[in-house]
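# nightly structure sweep
# worker-07 picked up a monomer target from the shared queue
# config: single-sequence mode, recycle default, output format = C-alpha cells
# input follows
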Amino acid sequence: MIIKLTALTQTIMSHNVFAGLWAVVNNAGISFPGMIEWQTVEEMKRVVDVNVWGMVSVTRAFLPLLKRTKGRVVNIASCLGRVAIRGAAAYCISKFSVQAFSDTLRREMRHFGVTVHIIEPGFFKTNITDTKTTVQRIETLWENLDADTKESYGIEYFEKGNKIYLIFISRWSFLDSLCIGKRHRGGGGGPQKKRGGGVFIPFWD
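# output follows
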C-alpha cells in the first residue's frame, strides 16, 4: 500500500496541470460489532488496520503536497472516539486512535501551516449501522461460542443486547439527518471550535 501511495503522489506531482493539493479527507471505516470475548483478535485487528493504519498511511503519503499549499487534513472520527460502548471495542479503539493521531499531527504540522480537523458523526444510517447485518453477526457470534462461555453470560444477556440495539437504531438512526460533533484543529494549542453532537445508549448495560 505504501509503495502504491508513494507512486501515486509522484505521478500527481509530475503532472503539468497539477495546481496543488489542498485537502485530504480520510473517511474509510469498517466495524465488526461483538463482545470482546466473542470475536477473534484477527477480526479486531482488521478494524484497526482499516480505520487507523489506512488513515495514517494515506496522510503520510500526501503530507509533502499539503505542506506546499498549507492545506488541511480532515479525519472522520466518531462520537465513539469519545465514549466507549459494549459490543464495539475494536471500533471504539480505532476511533479513539483517530483522535490521538489527529491531535498529534495537528501539533506537528502547525509549523508548516497545515491544519488538522476532526469530524465526529453521531449515529445515522450507513452499512455500519445496518440492523439486519449487525443482528445476524451478533447471533452468529453467540451461536459459535463454547458452552462454558454461553453459560457465563446467559441467554438473557444476549437477548437484552439485541433488543436494546434494535430499539436504539430504530429511534436514533436517520437517513436524512446527521448529528455531527466537529472539532476544528487549527494552529492554536487546543480546539478553536467545538460542537457536540450524538446520542449514546450503553448497549448491554
